[in-house]
Amino acid sequence: MVKIECAFAAWNHGCAGTSVQVVTTDGGWKALRINIRIGNSSIFRKIFITFLILLVPLYCITLIFVVQEEQRLRGHLTSSLENRISQQMQAFETEVNRIARFQTEYAVDKDLLQLSTISDGLTPFQRSQAVLDLQRRLYLLKESSPFIEETIAMIPAIKGSVVSKTFELRIDTALWNGLRSDRQMIGPFNYWDNALYLTLTHPRINLESDKEPSFLLAVKMNKHTIEKMLSDLHIYPDSQSLLISLHSGALLSGNEEVWQMSDMESKLALQSKLRQEAEGKVIHDDWDVGQSEYFVSAAKSDELGVMLLTYVPNEQVLGPTKVYLFWFWSISALSFVIVLLFSLSIYRFIHRPLLKLVSAFRQVERGEINTAIDINHTAKNEFGYLYNRFNLMVNELRTLIEEVYEQRIRSQQSELKRLQSQINPHFLYNSLFVLYQLIELNDNRNALRFAKYLGGFFQYITRDSKEEVVLSREVEQAKAYTEIQKMCYGHRLHVEFGELPEQEGNLVVPRIIIQPVIENAFKYAFEHMVSGGKLSLQFKVEDDLCVIVVQDNGEKLDDSLLARLQKETSDDYADPMELSGLINVHRRLRIRYGAPGGLRFSRSGWGGLCVEIIIKREKER
Questions:
Q1: What GO molecular-function term can you cite, just one (predicted)?
Q2: DSSP string of 185-226, one letter each residue
């Protein structure tokens, strides 16, 4: 590869610079890479500052409009949410306190006290009457508030539970154990099995106490009513509301999936802020939920130990700001007109001459080495200097490329002849000795055939009038060589010789490229094989390539030898002393066809060596 680099500067401040690199291959020059660097000149610095002076005030005005509108909408939303969430929290506290007061009054109910203390002294009729009276009062308590889903009185003395509409002759042990202690207490609530309960025991006990209460009165809060209360806070379609434990952060009501996917740090920060504020204070904050940003409002109740939280998508809150986008686009259009007028003014002085120079460079990239720029302006400015230096550079490139191309072609032809001369006598060493043995054994018939094949073979390889032949002639010579070897090996060898496709017969190829590959198989795969030798030669067409596949079942090929063959035929391997056998063939094919041509090695399906002779399909010359 020959590399040519040219560089020049146009003016003192380094406004522009150019570097050119030429890469030549066996086909002459192949690629031209051009890099243009534009530095920080005074002209471009002034243009940049001018653009800033024109555009910054316009966009500042637009930004002020948008920020003011956003602040107005946020203020309106904050006031609205604060009123709603405060009213809902106050109403919820009032309703829960009322239910708790009724629950306390039921604790001194005559029937409940009789059933829980002296039930054994009651007659069956009295016990039934007491249960019915207690059930009726529990039903009235349940119907007194939409926040009550069920009322339950669990009485160990009668081993049963009185519900608002039924009487069960058993006590739910899990529910009893969960509600009898204050372990799950959240303010006045007891949170158990995803439900909120207002519980009252007589006497009141804690988890460490071994004493069992005489009864447990539980009011189960209506989850649907609480969720409806939360939905009343939704002032936007995609807003959400949650009822959360102020102390543990557990979700008491609302969308559990949304609560779980929320940012934990945001939740903890919001809880901490609520704990520090006074009773009834509403907190406003921003919150990331999933991939969206939300505006959050939350209020706490120390008395109930809960936090009421609602959040609204910022996208919906700030939706009305789209009205002001009209002003933004108007200012942007005005900016575009200003930029367009300003660009037209600099186009004539800078851009148009620069485009002419870039166009000339692209012509050189495409291989048009005769490109030149006409210097049709009389002013001695920077672009006149650039054009002149470009023309000088192209002339120098043209001269260097022609010299390198001619030198490479001569070198390739010289090496081709040298490799050709080395391979011509390669088969002569062993063939005459084989013929001598046949004559000595009086095997005249095979000796005659052998002499015929041998004569044709040597006639082919000793004719130097042509360095290249058609592929059909080369295949005939390889088949003659194979017949000679078959006569030498006898029944120890089985040969499969495929038919050359008719349309490939006129391909022009270098002489003696198949026979060395076959000879390699006889030398290394079958030399010490007593029987069972297999040799196959087949043809296949791959796009613009004709591939001749030679396979054997030799047993001496190991992974290291295969790797060495692959390395010796790689593009980055170059050893001028290794010019025999398979490497000879590979080098000649690579010189003739370039990168597609050559030999490709792999392991055959029989376990031996598989050699693919790759020939680029070209018409006969």
A1: phosphorelay sensor kinase activity
A2: EETTEEEETTEEEEEEEES---TT--PPPSEEEEEEE-HHHH
DSSP 269-337: HHHHHHHHSPTT-EEEEEEEETTEEEEEEEEEETTTTEEEEEEEEHHHHTGGGGGGHHHHHHHHHHHHH
Burial bucket for residue 187 (CB in 10 Å: 0-12, 13-18, 19+): middle
Residues of the domain holding 182: 107-221
Q: Are residues 584 and 500 in the same domain?
A: yes
Q: What does the pLDDT look like over 103-114, one tens digit per residue?
A: 888 778 888 888
| Three-state secondary-structure class, residue 178 | helix
Residue 579 has pLDDT above 60, yes or no: no
Residues 610 and 485 in one domain: yes
For the cut 60, the answer to whether the pLDDT of residue 3 exceeds it is no
CA distance 60 to 43: 26
Confidence of residue 613 (pLDDT cuts 50, 70, 90): very high
Separation of alpha carbons 503 and 470, rounded Å: 12
What total of structural domains would you count in the chain?
Answer: 4
Query: Which residues make Cβ contacts (< 8 Å) with residue 110, sequence separation at least 6?
Result: none
**Residue range 497-555, pLDDT digits in tens:** 999 998 899 999 988 889 889 988 888 888 778 888 999 999 999 888 999 999 999 88
Long-range contacts of 125-128 (CB under 8 A, 24+ apart): 127/158
> Cβ(22)–Cβ(400) under 8 Å?
yes
pLDDT at 217 over 80: yes
Tell me, yes or no, whether 300 and 403 share the same domain: no
Q: Is residue 32 part of a domain?
A: yes
